[in-house]
Every structure is written in structure tokens, then in C-alpha cells.
Amino acid sequence: MQPFTYARAESEEAAIRAVSAGGRGTRFLAGGTTLYDLMKLGAETPERLVDISALPGLSGFETAGPRELVFGAGARMSDVAADPRLVRDYPVLSEALWKAASQQLRNMASLGGNLLQRTRCAYFRNGEPFACNKRVPGSGCAAREGIDRGHAVLGGSEACIATYPGDWAVALLALDAAVDVAGPNGARTIPLEALHREPGATPEVETTLARDEMILRVRVPATPLGRASTYHKIRDRESYAFALASAAVALRMEGEVVREARIALGGLATRPWRAREAERELAGRRLTPEAARAAGDAALRGARPGHHNAFRIELGARTVADALLIARQRA
Amino acid sequence: MDRTPDEPSDTPGAVSRRPLMIGAALAAAPLAPPGIAAPARAQDAGDGRLRVNLTVNGEARQLSLDPRASLLDTLREGLALTGAKKGCDHGQCGACTVHLDGRRVASCLTLAVQADGRAVTTIEGVAREDDELHPMQQAFIDHDALQCGYCTPGQIMAAIALVREGRAGSAEEIREYMSGNLCRCGAYAGILAAIQDAAPKMRGA
Ligand SMILES: Cc1cc2nc3c(=O)[nH]c(=O)nc-3n(C[C@H](O)[C@H](O)[C@H](O)COP(=O)(O)OP(=O)(O)OC[C@H]3O[C@@H](n4cnc5c(N)ncnc54)[C@H](O)[C@@H]3O)c2cc1C
Ligand code: SF4
Ligand code: FES
Ligand code: FES
């Protein structure tokens, strides 16, 4: 692993200053479960780490507010997953957290770092001798002609088909969350939907954040849709695995009829993926198993299979359908 | 400061909208501007190593570390505590599980410098006295919850934490909250039985 210097920030302001002044090789470090992992593989090569994991001002969260839920970027996944109000009123958020990684990792990992986790594409993680445009821009994409079983069927480009692997961002997307960020030139708010990018011709650029912008908190508008919600995650094994396909859904029902539906997909696309067409088609319909399945098909419309991942289009449609029926039970 | 899982922090400042005060001094900021501290006391001169204070199994230890060192390698190679095992070195197996300030973590993905000033408990530190095993250790023996034993220290550290987290409510819950610990020998049935046996004894103790 390449050598680096390590410093602990004493405030958010100081951390931003240090990362900004330190130049390209300087990075924020939170739980390290993405960054340190990839440093061991040479896929990340920072020269200076600024540790923000012990900043008390980042670690709180408040789920009782009447207008919005607020989550500090440094809050740990395990603590937030177990919040009783979240479990009761926003199961989609709690489930997206406790169905991710393991309790050991959730005790370490921060909500902000989670949003910025990087793809699990094995070619990206391992590098040479495999070509990877994300790791070395312009070098090619080994996955396109290689093993693409876990790669994206939505949002891919010629340059990259890497799946965005996270769960939490998918649940947040369904609930219209936003992130407050701050950089050397001030603060701004980014809708979660505008945080992650499709790879296009520059797969190494994954978000719309500047390198020296820090995520301070995530905000979720309070909504009664939270109760009738779920994060349904299908994996190769029952637990402790990334999604082959997942769906975050939330519903407002009037009897049997859907008044409003929110549907977002995980594990299938190059970024957290909102399925607005499926949402529109479902609104005003009775939520029968057939309607749920039609919504699943609509959500995957436009999906493009590679060599080994076509099964995940059907799996994705069924995952959406099952999620809708689970959420309906909670309405 | 150490919160239990179902007791959210309500630090008032934690999620305030207070705008960040980022001044004009920024452009001239040196590499380590005010408010940035090397952990603990100063970076050792020259060689890039950092002085780090850990409390390991109740004992204060001072170490001079390369910032790259994982907590796992530091325990095993620096402190000769070889109970925590290296299975994958990437957070994928749980063999390296230890407790940091009472919470279970993967020590392979924990930078040792991030543990500065904190308390680490390893499998070597859980027995109550020299001759009395922790109830979870005893239960693993009683239920034959291992074969080769390589995953066992991590399983036991995870299991002790799981009981304290209140996650031993049902077989299903135990399986879910133990899923971060893989056993290549497939001793899962014994591991589940051991945890179910030890949980009430831990509460009683
Ligand atoms: C074995 C394994 C299994 C996993 N399984 C899952 C899973 O099933 N589902 C899932 O969703 N995730 C999973 N993960 C990913 C895990 O959840 C993320 O690694 C974790 O959430 C990242 O958070 P962190 O605090 O450790 O981030 P770090 O590794 O510290 O940081 C990640 C990135 O974010 C940047 N960063 C961190 N905080 C901020 C901030 N506040 N502002 C700006 N930039 C910041 C860092 O510079 C870095 O680039 C798994 C990880 C492992 C190792
Ligand atoms: S899919 Fe993307 S991350 Fe994977 S090898 Fe291709 S370019 Fe790299
Ligand atoms: S060695 Fe740490 S999880 Fe495998
Ligand atoms: S006992 Fe051999 S790996 Fe678990």
C-alpha cells in the first residue's frame, strides 16, 4: 500500500480546509470500510487522509421531527438501523441499512461514506492485468467481454457497466431525500437523485460532489408513505451479500387503490435508479398481483442484458412486484 | 459517548443548520491547518510513524505505528495477540472481529491509528479469570461449535456482542446478526446452539 499521512480533524471546517488545501491526493476518511479496503487493493491511492469519523457534530440523527428526518453523515449504519421510529414509521430506511453488510461493518460505516461507496466490479477492485476505465481512464472495460453476472442492466455505457452496490441511497431516493454538503466556497443542498452520475464516457467521475466537499447530513421529508414501505433485497445468499436485485418501495393507498407509489431499484443499475414510469402506471390502479408484476416490468423496461446477467432483468421485475405486495400489507 | 443501538444520540448540535464558517484564510492554509491534529501527541519526527495509545484487554499500550497498519496486524504482530485471525483482510469473513469501545468491528478494515485513545477487547480478554472461561467460550466447547477453529475467536467475539445488542431473541435473529462471520467448516448448527445456550447465562452474570 502506498504511504500516506493521517490526521484527525477537530471540526468540519478544519477538515474541509485540510482536504481543499491538500490537493488531489487528500481525502476524507470516515469508517474506512470502502476507502481502506480499496487502498489495500491499490484501487485507491490517497497521500493524505483527514479523519472525520470522530467528529461529534456529524454523528447525530433525529427521526422525530414533524417535517423531516435528519441524519448526520457520520452516524453509524447500525445505530440508525435500530432506531425504533425508523423501524416503525420508515421500514424502507431501516431495512436498507440492516440488510447491508454485517453488524461489524455497520458499527464502523458512516451514512455519508455509505452513499459514496464504490462499485464491487471485480475488475475494478483487482486491476492489472484487467482493463478498467474507472481505475485507469481510457484503458478499456474488461467486464464487457468478461464475467458480467453482477453488472448493471440499466444505465451502463460503452465505457463502463459497473453496478452501484449500495442499498441506503436506493431507499433514500424513493423518499426524495437530499444531502447538505459544504466545501471551501460554502454550503449547498443536492437532491439525492442528482448526487450519483451514470458513467457515460467518464466512469471515474461517480458523483456531482467536488473532491473537497463534505457531506454534512441527509434530509428526508417526513411522509406517511414511510409506513407502507419496504426494502426488498435479493442476494446470492440469505444475508451479508450485495443485492442481485433490490427494490425500495413506498405506497399511499386508498383501500385497494394506489394513490401514490415510489419505486427505486438497487443492484441493477450504474446508479441508484428511480422507476418513475412504473410509479405513474401504478397510480390509480388496484394493487393486484398482476398490477404489481406489470409495475415490475415497467421498472425494468429499457434494461439491456450483457452476457451473463439477463436473468437479473426478470429477477428485478419480480423483486419490484414482491416489494409492492409486501408494502401493501403495511398500509 | 458509547450509545446503545436503540438509544439515538440527541446531541443538539449534531444536525443543526449552523452554516460552516469557512474564511478567507483558506487559500493560504498550510498542509496541517489549525484544527487538524495528528492523533494523540504529534507525529514522530521524520519516519512518518504515529504514536498511538490503545487500551487492549484493560492494559494501556503505547505504540509507534505506520499509518497504514490495520488494527488486526497491530494486535497480531505488534502485540503478539494472535487470537484475532486474518481470513480475508477485506471485511468479508469476520475472523478478525474484536470489540472497539464495546462494539464489534472488523479489525482488518480498522486503521490502527483510528483506534487511538480507545479500548480494544480481543478473545484473549474475555475470560473472567485465568481458569474460568467466558460463558460464550464454554458454550462453544459444550456444543462442538467448531471444527478447525480458525473462525472461532471471531465467532465468539461477534456472539458476545450480539447478545449484548439484544439480538439473541430467536434463531432467525441470531442467524441474521451472525451472518458477518463465515465458517468454512460449516459449524453453524453448533454455533447457533452455543449462542442460544450462552445468552441467558450472560444475562444472569
Ligand atoms: C464485506 C462488505 C460488505 C458490504 N456489504 C454492503 C451491502 O450489502 N450494502 C451496502 O449498502 N453496503 C455494503 N458494504 C459497503 C459499506 O456499507 C460501505 O463501505 C460503508 O458504508 C462506507 O462507509 P465508511 O464510513 O466506511 O466510508 P469510508 O470508506 O471512510 O469512505 C468512503 C468514501 O466516502 C468519502 N467520504 C466518507 N465520508 C464522507 C463525507 N461525510 N463527506 C464526503 N466524503 C466522504 C471517503 O473519502 C471515501 O471516498 C459492504 C462493505 C464490505 C467491506
Ligand atoms: S464495468 Fe466499469 S468498473 Fe468494471 S471493469 Fe468495466 S470500466 Fe471498470
Ligand atoms: S479478516 Fe477481517 S473480515 Fe476477514
Ligand atoms: S471451524 Fe473451521 S472455519 Fe469455522
From TrEMBL, chain A:
It is an enzyme of class 1 (oxidoreductase). GO terms for molecular function: FAD binding; xanthine dehydrogenase activity. Keywords: FAD, Flavoprotein, Oxidoreductase. Residues 1-225 form the FAD-binding PCMH-type domain. Its EC number is 1.17.1.4. The keyword Oxidoreductase applies. InterPro entries: CO_DH_flav_C (IPR005107), CO_DH_flav_C_dom_sf (IPR036683), Diverse_Substr_Oxidored (IPR051312), FAD-bd_PCMH (IPR016166), FAD-bd_PCMH-like_sf (IPR036318), FAD-bd_PCMH_sub1 (IPR016167), FAD-bd_PCMH_sub2 (IPR016169), Mopterin_DH_FAD-bd (IPR002346). It comes from the Bacteria. SMART domains: CO_deh_flav_C. PANTHER family: OXIDOREDUCTASE (PTHR42659:SF1), XANTHINE DEHYDROGENASE SUBUNIT C-RELATED (PTHR42659). This is Xanthine dehydrogenase YagS FAD-binding subunit. It comes from Muricoccus pecuniae.
Automatic annotation (TrEMBL), chain B:
It comes from the Bacteria. Residues 50-126 form the 2Fe-2S ferredoxin-type domain. Keywords: 2Fe-2S, Iron, Iron-sulfur, Metal-binding, Oxidoreductase. SUPFAM superfamilies: 2Fe-2S ferredoxin-like, CO dehydrogenase ISP C-domain like. GO terms for molecular function: 2 iron, 2 sulfur cluster binding; metal ion binding; oxidoreductase activity, acting on the aldehyde or oxo group of donors. Coiled coil: none annotated. This is Xanthine dehydrogenase YagT iron-sulfur-binding subunit. It comes from Muricoccus pecuniae. The lineage of its organism: Bacteria, Pseudomonadati, Pseudomonadota, Alphaproteobacteria, Acetobacterales.
